Task: structure prediction
Amino acid sequence: MTTKEICATSFDGLLEKRGVNRRDFLKLCAGVATALGLSQTAVPRIAEALEEKVIGATSGALAPALWLELASCTGCTESLAQVDTPDIATIVLELISLNYAETLSAGAGHSLEAAKEETIQAGGYLLFIEGALMEGWNGDALRIADERGIDIVEHAASNAVAIICAGSCAVDGGWQAAYPNPGGAIGIQAYLQKAKDAGRIEYEIPPIVNVPLCPANPEHLVAVLVDYLLLGTLPALNQFNMPSLIFDQTIHDNCPRRGHFENGEFVYRFGSEEEAKGYCLYAVGCKGPETKSNCPIVRWNRGSAWCVESGAPCAGCATANPTRQGFNWVDLNTPFLHHLKNIGIGGLRFEPAFIAFAVAGVVVVALAIHGFGMKKTGRTKGGADFELERSWDREHPDQALGSAEAARAAAAVMGVAVPEDIEVEAEAEEAEALAEAVEVAEAIEVAEAPTSIVEDETTEEGGGN
Amino acid sequence: MAHLAHYREAHPLPFVLTHWINLIAMVLLILTGFYIHFPLFENWMGVARGAHVFFGFVLFLNMLVRVVLAFFVKSSPYGGSREVQPDYKSFFPQKDNRHQFGAWIKYYLFLKKDHPLSAKYGVLQKLSYLAIPFLIIIMFFTGLCLWGPTQEYGLFAGLTDLVGGPMVMRIIHYYLMWVFILFTFIHAYLASIEGLAPLKIMFLRKESGGLTYDGTVHNIVGEDDTGEEDGHGH
Result:
């Protein structure tokens, strides 16, 4: 099929009924091509894929899909539905054969549940999941249509060709899994892996594509969908099963305010002159430097704006770790208006800087007090007098390192009294031994350091402080 | 009062230089690090980041040089002695420090009146100095995990994943800086609280007189009053 042919399909009529034209549709395709890292020459192929495979405009065969809504705020559905002014992405997603979507489906109740079951039995569907699973209270923390959420997911995943986790909650539990997480919120990937490891599910877990953000960006979902339908394969994924082309660069890398960051021009207070100038939001806690998403390129709301452009510091909602609990974006990024997250000791939360300064303060005070102690004990002018022999030596004379002679010599050098236990030993030939030891010491000293002068052993003062 | 003589043999010129470089690099890293952590005043982010990365490499390379030199430069293993041996031996257990760990703790807690006999580095000193190269390595690696051009390299990306992401890595890097700060506080305090002789030899290469120590008898053997403080500076 050529580009020209694509340009004249009955699909155009479908679009017109929804108040958009062919040009808008191709613009979407171009956006999708960019998001996928394809050249613009791929636009006709994308258009074709969307029309034929997704929408079934020519073949009539729609790509079947289920949209499970678990523990969620429905924000991701809202984000996709764009109820005020439906956009192209919405239409595309509406026109896949969405056989089950609690919020969007016209049907309800048993008939809808039956449609879902039929789709699962038929297989070959894409499984979109919005919201976190709840493991709490034996899984009863989340029940839908009188079934536990965990059972629903285990069953629905059994025949899917791929699972697309839409939004951070489905990816790793999101904000619902944030501390203290009483309901046991968990991401889909982690849950299925756990169920597999525990032997609760027999089948191979279908490929999982994690598309975080809170809420999920519709353009990211369409990009994944098109990639799958166009190339017949899932997009290249990073270690978190997130599409690499979307989630491998930081927001900071592509931020339009980056120049202000490098110049050191920051907003320190909301409502300030700096904010009016559009300076960098780093100092008010922007998480752009550690958050990976192409938000600055794809933007939101049909490309009209995105958080940082609208003046809000990035809250880091793209941060997600589907394989580890406790590393969701809320745990990792709160308080949103501070540079570092708070760290916890038990139930208490502290700013890292607070703890650091507190510990440093304690150390400085301790050193100051210690300094007074050193002053008071007269150690500040050269330290205390040296011990004549090591305490351990005294207790273990048979294994002693030093000798009594050396100790007596040292005592003589320093002009201090020889302790009794050493003295007793030397009692017999005290004077003789002392003189001898000092001689030995002098000899060694002179040999070692010919320039130094050995002080007279009877000197009262210890010498150079 | 009595302390050991401070001779140049204890701190040969190459180590005085690496010590100076360490000091300058650490101070600048800490200042620029604080600025990057929170830019208290405007206009310096580019400079601060550039300087931070530059001095990070300086600190790391200086550490490597210092460690390698320890095997090729000779220094005195004892305070108050001009006897020399390969420097690295001063960082491994020495006879003169045997069983003295408790003595040092007691001395600093004022539970022991007299100064413990020791090799050039006391037990606590030796342990903390040995930790520094490892701290610098960890600091360097966590820094590279955060630095844009290197954060995607497999090793660094893997380390970041291991700790739980860039935010956790930032906090580790931040707290490690405080370890350096507190080390420096304590190090500077202990080095100078008993007199300025250690500072003079370490920064200015000026010798000070004092007691002399002999490694063969493991004790004080004499006194050298030719030091600076007695007015006969070398």
Observations:
- Confidence is low (pLDDT under 50) at residues 228-234 of chain B.
- The two ends of chain B are 22 Å apart (CA to CA).
- Chain B has one domain: 8-230.
